[in-house]
Amino acid sequence: MTTTRTDGVAVVLGTVRAMAADIVVYGPPGMDDREQGPLVGKALEVFRDVHRTCTRFDPESPLMQVNARPDQWHVVPPLLFDAVRSAHGAYELTGGRFDPRVLGDLVRLGYDRSLPFAEGVDTPGVPDPEPRVRTPWRPRFRSGRRPRLHLGGAPVDLGGIGKGLAVRWASAILRDGLEDFLVDAAGDCHCQGTGPEVDGWRVGVEDPSGGDLPVAVLALRDRACATSSTRIRRWRSGGRPVHHLVDPSTGRPGGDGLAAVTVVADDAADAEVATKSLFLAGAEAIAEAADTGDVAALWVTTDGTCTTSTAMDPYVVWRAA
Amino acid sequence: MTRPPGAGGPRRKKRNVVSSTVAAAATAGVTGLTLAWAVGSTPSTGSAAGAAAQVTGQIAADKAAMAELRQSITATQGQLAALGIGGTTAGATTPGATLPGGTPAPTSGAPGTAAAGSATGGAGGSGNRATPSTGGASGTVASHGAAAGAAVTAGPTGSSSSAGAAGPVGASSPAPAGGSTPAPSAGGAPSSGAGSPAPAAPVATPTAAPPVTAPPATAPPVTAPPVTAPPATTPPPVTTSTGASTA
Lengths: 321, 247
Prior knowledge:
The complex is a heterodimer. Helix content of chain A is about 25%, strand content about 25%. Chain A is α+β, with helices and mostly antiparallel strands. Chain A folds into two domains: about 10-55 and about 160-320, ApbE-like domains (T-fold, Roll), CATH 3.10.520.10; about 55-105 and about 130-150, no CATH class. Chain B is α+β, with helices and mostly antiparallel strands. Chain B has three helices and five strands. A two-stranded antiparallel ribbon of chain B has the order 1-2. The N and C termini of chain B lie far apart (about 105 Å). Mean pLDDT of chain B is about 50; it is low at about 1-45 and about 85-205.
């Protein structure tokens, strides 16, 4: 864990490399990072646990063990049990728009391992999936000292919610001892207290086209935010451009016309689910979907237009001209 | 004979008033819209009796002029009402009165308001379209029954103005843009208490009512320019960013 201080703006209380990202916990200026070390270390360990348990890129992970036999009961670690139960809750809450069973589609598109997206990836082409009749996802859960899980017949990918859950759980640990902190999980974050500012931690919303300046800056206090973007995890499959945000109703990359969606919510996992759900709504329907659900959302279309929902406006302290 | 202070005040003041030519003039220019009272004194004559007779005569003349002016104002109001702009605002003493066209006049002291001694509510901020109007007597002027009649025709870039909205005495602020055309008009009414020193102002003859520029039948709306500040091009410092994640 590093103890590097930033430029007098916020204090880095700890970092960890997990989930293919550098996870950082910040504190307000003046906070003694050594004093908070044990608590922060415990919080950061959550990310390692989630990664070890829920990664789909390690065949030995508990998730992949269950995925190998999704039609059977499994005794699983409590963390995996809670993660799948949370994913199922999100599935029901979004009417199936968030569906971790898209794992099969991701694999079909060639995303069956951690890909070097920055270098450019072109996976073998595959035909589009046949029109599908979606079946309800009905995993089963038996809690207890040794929780048991039945996936309901289909393997799942927890990548769409795992990092948000890690931020949720890490933040819960940190709240036991800190009133002011920021958990930054590279895309998902939780902002507790106000940070260096009087009205909330400043969080920039990246330009999905790769520009140096953010498209907006948010001030978040006791709020989490998450972004779903196609900027990095995009590749070519059989020569066709694809990305990782797959619409479970079609099996193909969704979100026509959108480049990125950011959501502010009370909880990071909820925000992450909401970003994916809204992204799949596409550019034409996202405004109505966000306002109908009173979701604080910001989205950037493929032509670079940045729009915010009514509920997001209070958080925006700056936006690009 | 020396009179105690105040003993002959009203009379003396009245004399001074009636022997004066009063003109209300509104000037709108780069330094602002200023309503000024210009007083030109008539030389007094020798004996007290003679002076009294002169005063009496002057009073009568001024009353006649005032009556004539009131008639003119009434006629003007009728003309404006016929044009469907709600008549004039003469005599209105409420700051923020609505201008023809629907733009509320700012309270006194805002750019473009006039108030040198007397008060006339200025209307509109900089860049507002001019609104021809009759000058309304208000504030101290109105209390003395003086009909004003300073027609103000502001230029396109000047602050528009509408008389009648009273402002605090002395509250004056510069108008940001010029282009206003002062239309000196006849005052002629006896007046007192226009307390502020009168800056140079055109002196009008106390005869006819001022010409009133008839507004178009359908006055275009007076729309203030947006005052939204342009967004800063440099974002504030952030602690972190949210965006595409690797995995």
